[in-house]
Amino acid sequence: MKRDIYAYITTCVLVIAVGFSAFLVYTDNAIPFTTQATVKTTSINVVPEVKGYITDVYVREGQRVPAGAPLLQIDRTDYQIAKDKALAVQKQRQSTLAKSTRHYQRIRALAKKGSISQDDLDVAKEAMANANAQLEQANADLATAKRNLERTLMIAKHAGVVTNLAYKPGMYVSPSSVAVHLVNRQDLWVAADFTEKGLPALQKNRHVNIVFDALPNRVFQGQISAIDQAIQSGLNDAGQLATVTNETRWIRSQQKVRVRIRLDEMPSNVVAGGRASVMLRDDGKVSDTWMSLLSWLRYLY
């Protein structure tokens, strides 16, 4: 009796193992499945265009900000002084040009009467040209000073959610440091890494089932929007020697291929960097059934 029970259990285990192995082979080739999927988005790094100490912070961590919203205020004092100096220089150059122009006009009138030489006229003309060039330089310096003063107010060039905000009033920032990170919630996608043997089945616009680790018991739908055409090991820079991998094992790990997936509806409580499982949908119910089961298992692990 015991021998029959052991035989029955052994048979069941073998049947399950063989069946599951067949399932894995089928899914790898016909309806590829992967647990190596990550939620991705674009992060907009807001970098100051001028340097200085922060006087005000207008946003907080996790705040949604529209394009054009103020983020940080850098101390305006030095830039206001630079603008005032540039404005004073501009006025001085305007006065110099006006005097040079009047002087040239007088010299030209006298030259027409033959009262002065051509050399004197050329000198007056050159002085007027130099004064005009200096005024143009002063105008450019003033425009730069005004622009730098405006740049002390950092604004959001794109809408996003403030993430990893570390700066406070009194801290120093410069154009080489990222002051604010804005996460673009409107541009979330899923990057899934499938084994390359599933490439024949992975086609653009094919539908997939998605289960997020953060949302058990829920299956989402999406579409393949793009398939990366190269991975790092497949790129060869011009002018460099080939890199040869010394592989001694008979069985090597399979190469992964990156696939980009757009969801029909991205859940609001999924964050960039979150993990997910993805499976290509089939005409039958294999994918739907497996992903539904997996969504329940996400309660456990």
TrEMBL record:
Keyword Transmembrane: yes
InterPro entries associated with the record: AaeA-lik-b-barrel, EmrA/FarA_HH, MFP_Efflux_Pump, RND_pump_MFP
Limits of the p-hydroxybenzoic acid efflux pump subunit AaeA-like beta-barrel domain: 189-279
GO molecular function term, any single one: transmembrane transporter activity
Domain Multidrug export protein EmrA/FarA alpha-helical hairpin: 80-152
Coiled coil: 121-155
Keyword terms: Coiled coil, Membrane, Plasmid, Transmembrane, Transmembrane helix
Highest rank taxon of the organism: Bacteria
GO cellular component, one term: membrane
Keyword Transmembrane set for record: yes
Residue spans crossing the bilayer: 5-26
Similarity field: Belongs to the membrane fusion protein (MFP) (TC 8.A.1) family.
Protein name (record): Efflux RND transporter periplasmic adaptor subunit
Origin species: Vibrio sp. HB236076
